Amino acid sequence: MTRLWHSRPVVFGALLLAFALVAAACGDSTDDTTSAPQATTAAPTTAAPDTTAAATTAAPTTTEAPGKPYGGEAIVADDQEPPTLNPFVPGGDNFIVSIIGQSYHAGVQEIDGFTLTLIPELVTELPTVANGGVTVNADDTMTVRYTLRDDAQWSDGTPITGDDLQFTLDTILDPDLPVDKTTYEDIVDTQVGDKTFEYTLSAPTALYELIFGTLIPKHAVEGSDFTTDWNDTMWPSAGPFVFDQWQKGEFVKVVRNDNYWKSDEETGQQLPYLDSVIFRFIPETESIINAFRAREIDIIQPPPATETIETLQALEPEGAVVEVLSGPVWEHLNFQFGPARLERNPDSVNDNLNYRKAIAHAIDKQLIVDEILAGQVEPLDSFVEAFSPTLSLGAWKQYDYNPDTAKSFVDAAKADTGKDSIKTVFSTTSNNDARVKLSELFVDMMTAAGIEYENQLEDSQIFFGETLDNGRWDLGEWAWVGSPGFSGLISIFDVWDPEAPPPDGSNYYRWGTEDSSIIDANTARFAEIRDALNSSVDQDVLVPLINEAENILADNVVLVPLYARLVTAAVWGDEIAGFKHNPTQASHTWNMEQWYRVDG
After folding, report:
1. DSSP readout, 47-84?
2. Cα(204)–Cα(427) distance, rounded to whole angstroms?
3. Do 404 and 477 touch, CB atoms closer than 8 A?
């Protein structure tokens, strides 16, 4: 049996999603977070551009009628500054590195902001079994083939070739470099062509989808000190802009890549439209909002507090465009099935299906999103929606909010267990405002269902430490992170794999594990499905297995998906056009080559 990797819940502020993030338990933007380290390198001597004036003063330099106008500048604000510009070294997985990196990095794939699916970037098409780009060989190895776009080139005019892919691989696999080598280290052979690259993995895995997300130019980087030379500047660009300057503590500026290979499919114009983009660093959310309100900033993606959203939406009559989307971080209610739950609640009956169904019907998800998210998103009917919405069966729709139905299941649970009353002890993080509010909402819901209820919340360090490690909770709640493509969706099933308890695995729930109170045909079948998912890359095989696994988890109420956290972005639509928010790790800068000024 092949494991993709062990995933441990972690706590962080930004969504530090690298090429294949499986899942992560998260705090919110004000609690349970870590901040990006501040850069200490001396600031460059070049003068800072004037970013305090309203963005409306940036006029386009030229206009190509009847197409979209060229020229001008856009200003983007963020509350963090990158610790490095190099996405491969420590600190390079910080989300702000990706946000800025969208201006000059490119790779095999991109995440489309409209469909939230993987699309080709530097290659002609994404390889699959169906199109012949992926082959599972007779010896159980797997070969993947890329064909690079003929017009793909670096900003200095050098064509992007198979040598760049090979150099990227060699750099990542250099044992002396502190680079994440996951999946790349399973490559056993490569074939390099001018505009082609082929590699063979030691075993089939869907994780191939998200590797080579950023290419490194061999002609510019070879012979340099990779860990130090590219922290404060950047190699030639494969994206729409090129790095210009970094004024530490203030901003990063990028300017138009005149050799960018991409054209606007709608107008045929060469991209990008803007002369430059400035990323300003403003640590406080309130200051970001104030700068946006004053039109000193064109585009923001602030922490998605409901108060912030309402403040921004109040600016819509003045020309602001606010997009509030369901993000990849999804919250869920869950049960502990291991013996340590009895330390938290000696009367726990989590192994009783009627009780778990009672919980599912007792939860008023609509009230939860109304109270915690101001009704900005719909409740989740399946966690699959956070990964691949088109694959979701909505398997939890069967559990509507119905206190009377919940009571009937409580009565059935009493009959099953011989107990006069059913008690639940709920635990989550005490320093997360949304989760504290959730615990308060549960009081009336559980009471209405006839369930004796108690809150026992803990500091996040304790909850995400010894509590999760040892399974010392009864009814719990936290979040995981979804990512587009089959790879992330397949990987999330590891967290319920009966063959993968902690500390070597991620089944913190201990559903079906050796010490579980539930070991049955469902847990055995789920383990088989998990292994089958990780031994195939054929979508015709994977989709039915994903559907079956979703139904098993829903029918057995192993968890109850609640809602996806909000991701918010705002733009002054009367100044900048072409903006489309992307709630994934591709970020709100994913299509910045399409931005153009309309106020010149």
Report:
1. PPP--SS-GGG---SEE-TTSPEE--EEEEEES---S-
2. 39
3. no
User: Residue for token digits 């390099």?
Assistant: 192
Q: What number of other Cβ atoms are within 10 A of residue 42's Cβ? A: 8
The position carrying tokens 């969706």 is 489
Q: In what order do the strands lie in the sheet with 196-201?
A: 134-136, 142-147, 196-201, 187-192
- Distance CA(231)–CA(158), nearest Å, equals 22
Reading the block at residue 236, the tokens are 């030639």
* Interhelix angle 403-417/353-362, nearest 10 degrees: 160
Q: Write the CB contacts of 262 (distance below 8 Å, at least 6 apart in sequence).
A: 240, 270, 271, 593
Q: Check if CATH label 3.10.105.10 holds for domain 328-565.
A: yes
Give the bridge partners for 189, in sequence order.
Answer: 200
Residues forming beta bridges with residue 132, ordered by sequence position: none
How far CA 498 is from CA of 79, 207, 393, 476, in Å, comes to 41, 21, 23, 19
DSSP state of 463: I
- For the chain, what percent of residues have pLDDT higher than 70? 89
Tokens representing 321 are: 């465009």
Q: Please tell me whether residue 150 adopts helix, strand or coil conformation.
A: coil
Is the pLDDT assigned to residue 41 strictly greater than 50? no
Quickly state the pLDDT bin for 207 (edges 50, 70, 90): confident
pLDDT at 68 over 60: yes
User: Residue 10: is its pLDDT beyond 90?
Assistant: no
Q: Is the pTM of this model over 0.85?
A: no
Q: Residue 430 is encoded by which pair of tokens?
A: 């005490």
Structure tokens at 97: 């590195």
Environment class of 10 (CB within 10 Å of its CB; exposed 0-12, middle 13-18, buried 19+) = middle
State pLDDT tens for residues 100-111: 999 999 999 999
pLDDT at 2 (0 to 100): 31
- Give tens-digit pLDDT for 364-419: 999 999 999 888 889 999 999 988 888 999 999 999 999 999 999 999 999 999 99
Q: Can you give the three-state secondary structure of 167-215, one letter per residue?
A: HHHHHHHCCCCCCCCCCHHHEEEEEECCCEEEEEECCCCHHHHHCCCCC
Q: Which residues contact 265 (CB under 8 A, 6 or more apart)?
A: none
Interatomic CA distance for residues 489 and 491, integer angstroms: 5
Q: 66 preceded by cis ω (within 30°)?
A: yes
